[in-house]
Design brief:
2 copies of one chain form a homodimer. The first copy, chain A, is of the alpha/beta class. The first copy, chain A, folds into 3 domains: 44 residues, 434 Repressor (Amino-terminal Domain), CATH 1.10.260.40; 133 residues, Rossmann fold, CATH 3.40.50.2300; 130 residues, Rossmann fold (3-Layer(aba) Sandwich). The first copy, chain A, is built from 12 helices and 12 strands. A 6-stranded parallel sheet of chain A has the order 2-1-3-4-5-11, sandwiched between helices. A 6-stranded mixed sheet of chain A has the order 7-6-8-9-10-12, with helices on both faces. In chain A, helix 11 links the parallel strand 8 and strand 9. The termini of chain A are far apart. At the A-B interface, helix 4, helix 5, strand 2, helix 6 and helix 11 of A face helix 4, helix 5, strand 2, helix 6 and helix 11 of B. Chain B binds a DNA duplex (16 and 16 nucleotides) through helix 2 and helix 4.
DNA sequence: GTGAAAGCGCTAACAA
DNA sequence: TTGTTAGCGCTTTCAC
């Protein structure tokens, strides 16, 4: 940090006290018009910038929000950050970001760093909310909001999607269309939200009285290529199905690519539906069917709730579930014809 | 900010001076082993955290890097941020992020906010580097590094891709394969890097003695759907071409979708090559041909150069061009057969 | 080894 | 209106 001119020097040059300079800068208190102009002129000339660090130290408020994310490179997180960012800026806050790659030690370290940095609040987005996380958070003297993870039991405010519900509802739509033998290409076991979606899927089947066929279920890792291979694995073990649900849109595309490679027509023979439609969905030749929700809204709501908590000094437990839409489009058809050999 | 225990109270409880506590916390100076342990115990018991704000004020160093990005939601920026973030953490810095949506006033405001926050340096990623940007930056007492924009004339350090060169080279590859009637679906005019790519394209043609046909050139906005329509526009005005180059991978996919819809075979009749291959490319059924480079490296290099500048107090003008690879894969064929009507 | 005290640059209560 | 002054919590000489 180079040497900057400070308030004392400005005051000296303007022949006033530092208090007056402070008042001018903050538009607080009354200052005679002529002195105000004088001071403003000096500020202009000298290129003076107040040192916000000192102000924050004095005010005990940083207007800084820390955000800890496990992964920046998905389709959703950048959008969520965008949403957060927008609300923060509007309300005079700044965003401190840390990327942890899901490593617990990194997360822990950043809770401490953020605490030391005296951020006013923290937005925490992780893959799996652990009891250890809860303990860390409970120790902090500032509000922490969980993004993407429901934390009912822990009484920690959160904003998330209702993964269980939309997966169930989407499955029901397929069932209504006459499908009963449905594949599920899921996420990794470590993803709580992935498991929730799977639970929604199986519950929908159960409630419809459809037996669950393990041949048609497989885990994946969210990626297009992986889905291609997983679809192939399923094809190799059982071809008696008429629909596929995938954990996200990339995997829907991977599945479609695989099916078409094997001369299975989508949606004539197999319908495909992806949960979590993002920009990837737009690359599909077929208009993809599936569940869509706004990550921007996720971020915006998260930021709003957190700021409200901070500014009201309430210790309220607040939460919000972002709504979703289900689209049935080109990749889904009413009653797919069998392609059984 | 709630009331936290501070150094004075710790000192009191330990019956030592605050200077000693400070020494313990920073491992600076000599402290007798027994007093050190005593103090550490008190720190443990009280859950004391040093107020980094105060330290920063005293030390005149925040270990904070500001990053101003115009757009968070592309494929590349999150990866670049990841790269930046990784280097910063490794070297003990934190990342302050601002999203401007390309609005000049927002950019300006954040340069000021960051300056006031006393960040140690700024990484600036914009679409178009203006003289006004240069003026702002020159006024700042801290180093600013331009990401994605070359700033030769301004003597501002930068890390970027060589958009001109890779576009030219990719075009030359197509020419070598026997293509001469090549479409170009470009970016918006506001994107300097898009224009550079276009310049590379036209120069390659010129140098090969190929006349430029305006029918085959069109601007777009980087998006898949837009590319679909732009490809259609070209098809409507001129079908005498054997290859298409698009400004990015999403547009390559859009173009392919359009061609196939019109029963034009890729790559048998038309080869398609996309600049800037990202995760979108992986959704294509055909392995996409094109230029690929690492946004992670972009971010890492940017952070490294900036930190070096900060820590050495040099005012060196430093720069780095991230290398690229050109892949010719399924979407390109040697000499496409004509599909002219 | 340890402590006292002078900053760091600002805000805000109180006085004038 | 304006100025004086006591913090905010830490680092860092300089004595002891």
């Amino acid at each position: 940090m180079r040497k900057d001119i400070n308030i004392v020097e400005v005051a000296k040059k303007a022949n006033v006290s530092i208090a007056t300079v402070s008042r001018v800068f903050n538009n607080s208190g009354k200052v005679k018009e002529s002195t105000r102009r004088k001071i403003e002129q000096i500020i202009e000339e000298t290129g003076y910038y107040p040192n916000i660090l000192a102000r924050e130290l004095a005010e005990k408020k940083t207007s800084l929000i820390g955000m800890i994310v496990h992964n920046m490179t998905g389709e959703g997180m950048p959008r969520a950050i965008n949403g957060v960012s927008e609300v923060l800026i509007k309300r005079g806050y700044n965003l401190l970001i840390a990327c942890t790659n899901g490593v617990f030690e990194n997360e822990q370290k950043h809770f401490e760093i953020f605490r030391s940095k005296r951020v006013d609040g923290i937005i925490f987005a992780t893959d799996k909310f652990l009891t250890a996380h809860e303990r860390m958070i409970k120790k902090l003297p500032i509000p922490v909001l969980s993004l993407l993870q429901v934390t009912e039991k822990e009484n920690i405010p959160f904003v998330s999607f209702d993964n269980y519900r939309f997966a169930k509802e989407a499955t029901q739509k397929l069932i209504e269309l006459g499908h009963s033998r449905i594949c599920f290409i899921g996420g990794p076991e470590s993803s709580v939200n992935g498991l929730e979606r799977f639970r929604g899927f199986t519950d929908a089947l159960k409630e419809a009285g459809i037996k669950i066929n393990k041949d048609l279920i497989i885990n994946g890792n969210f990626h297009v290529e992986d889905s291609y291979h997983k679809m192939k694995v399923i094809l190799d073990r059982n071809r008696d199905f008429t629909a596929v649900i995938t954990i996200n849109d990339g995997m829907a595309i991977g599945a479609i690519n695989c099916l078409e490679k094997h001369n299975i027509l989508v949606p004539d023979q197999v319908s495909v539906l992806g949960l979590d439609l993002t920009v990837l969905a737009s690359t599909s030749r077929l208009k993809l069917s599936g569940v869509q929700y706004s990550y921007e809204t996720l971020g915006e709501k998260g930021a709003e709730i957190l700021l409200n908590l901070i500014e009201s000094e309430d210790t309220l437990f607040d939460k919000y579930i972002v709504p979703y839409d289900i689209y049935l489009r080109e990749s889904v058809s009413c009653r797919s014809k069998s392609f059984k050999p």
